[in-house]
Amino acid sequence: MGKGRLSGAVMARGLASVVACVTLLLLVFASVPARAQTAFDRPGGDYFSTPVTSGDPEDCALLCERDRKCRSWSFSYPDIDGAAAVCWLKNTVPPRVPGSCCISGVRGAGVIEPRVEGVETSIDRPGGDLRNFELKDGESVEACKAACTADNKCRAFTYARPGYTGREARCFLKKEIKPPRRKAGFTSGVVR
Q1: Cα distances (angstroms) measured from residue 76 to each of 5, 33, 69, 168, 176
Q2: How far apart are CA 154 and CA 109, in angstroms?
Q3: Rounded to 5°, angle at Cα 138 from 132 and 143
Q4: Between these two residues, 60 and 116, which has the higher pLDDT value?
């Protein structure tokens, strides 16, 4: 009988330790800020949509924060037909699906742009242009960066998504490195 009590006490302490560890882990993960997901959409659950004239997904995240019904949101970039960016507020948290059209997040999720070596997301470097050109349908920031790398006079580049400087995506090659400025829909980088 004494043996059963001892093992029960040991089991209770072990269980208490496990519960304490799980609680500590939950607190650690709860303190990590939620992040919006770039290149993901959350289809469904829409109860409100509005154009975002600034073209900035942070404005959509802020709309969700200010609306008590909002549980998640999706921001659609301007499309190639010239339509404005759109913010979709949702009263549910639908599962995310890959989509280069969008950025989505849950309430409380700020927009954190991905950090890729040599690429500055949501950054424009205005001025110092060597030349600029329209990109073909389907070409991305990588094509713009490659064009700059191939031109010895090019020191930096700025890529504008379709709908931000015109119907098509545009690449600006820079002969001078100008200071970066935050601007939604633009991606820049310094090559040399």
Answers
A1: 62, 23, 20, 16, 32
A2: 37
A3: 45
A4: 60
79 band by pLDDT with thresholds 50, 70 and 90: confident
Closest CA to 65 of 105, 113, 112: 105
Q: At 8, which helix (H) or strand (E)?
A: helix 2-31
DSSP 106: E
Give which of 95, 166, 106, 109 is closest to 132, Cα–Cα. Answer: 166
**pLDDT per residue as tens digits for the range 37-56:** 888 999 999 999 999 999 99
Give the residue among 30, 41, 138 at the shortest CA–CA distance from 88.
41
Residue 36 in tokens = 């919006």
pTM of the model: 0.70
